[in-house]
């Protein structure tokens, strides 16, 4: 097994290789505006660090969000392209699950990432491997009662200490955690789904209301 994991659902552009036993190479850079520019060089970097070629990869793991439309699609399209080119399966894992897996926090707890617009993407967990609720997007004040008294991890939790007073790192997801979680699930015989994006809300770009369609005569 050689899994190539990547995630662009948060400001982190993160890539890792897992050989079925451990992570053998990883790279993470935080830059919310350069996902497309940074992702492929990061893939090259981890392959070079491991001394392997892309053709050695036996599976792709992609973080499916939730996340913003533009950043998230960079990772998902890249994962699908690699899968088609190599003829290997492509698996999807929730980005919040990767953060939970990496969290050194006793359960139950909350994972919250920054959704912009003064909102967070969030979910509740019983422990690092068990999610209790579907991912959602809300204003922190709207979920204060639901998360009261619970530790929290992620950039969203760190950004809103009034709602998440017990906020902890990690701030962003790491592909190393996603790869490790996927390898664990596959070794246990679990079937991982194909990646389908968790946008949770419409893209920022909208067609103007008074837009006129010009048709040829």
From TrEMBL:
It holds the Pfam family TsaD. The keyword Transferase applies. GO terms for cellular component: cytosol. It comes from the Bacteria. Coiled coil: none annotated. Residues 32-144 form the Gcp-like domain. GO terms for molecular function: transferase activity. GO terms for biological process: tRNA threonylcarbamoyladenosine modification. The keyword Transferase applies. SUPFAM superfamilies: Actin-like ATPase domain. Keywords: Transferase. This is tRNA (Adenosine(37)-N6)-threonylcarbamoyltransferase complex dimerization subunit type 1 TsaB. The lineage of its organism: Bacteria, Bacillati, Actinomycetota, Actinomycetes, Kitasatosporales.
């Amino acid at each position: 097994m050689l899994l190539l994991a990547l995630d662009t659902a948060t400001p982190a552009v993160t890539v890792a290789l897992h050989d079925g036993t451990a992570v053998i190479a990883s790279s993470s850079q935080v830059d919310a505006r350069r996902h497309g520019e940074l992702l492929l060089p990061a893939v090259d970097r981890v392959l070079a660090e491991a001394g392997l070629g892309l053709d050695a990869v036996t599976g792709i793991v992609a973080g499916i969000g939730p996340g913003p439309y533009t950043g998230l699609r960079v990772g998902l399209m890249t994962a699908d392209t690699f899968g088609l080119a190599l003829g290997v399966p492509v698996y999807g894992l929730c980005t919040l699950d990767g953060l939970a897996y990496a969290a050194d926090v006793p359960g139950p707890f909350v994972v919250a990432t920054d959704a912009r617009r003064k909102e967070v993407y969030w979910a509740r967990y019983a422990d690092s491997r068990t999610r209790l609720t579907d991912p959602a997007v809300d204003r922190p004040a709207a979920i204060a009662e639901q998360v009261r008294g619970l530790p929290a991890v992620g950039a969203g939790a760190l950004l809103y200490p009034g709602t998440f007073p017990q906020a902890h790192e990690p701030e962003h997801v790491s592909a190393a955690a996603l790869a490790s979680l996927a390898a664990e699930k596959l070794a246990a015989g679990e079937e991982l789904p194909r990646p389908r994006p968790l946008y949770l809300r419409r893209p920022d770009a909208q067609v103007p209301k008074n837009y006129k369609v010009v048709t040829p005569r």
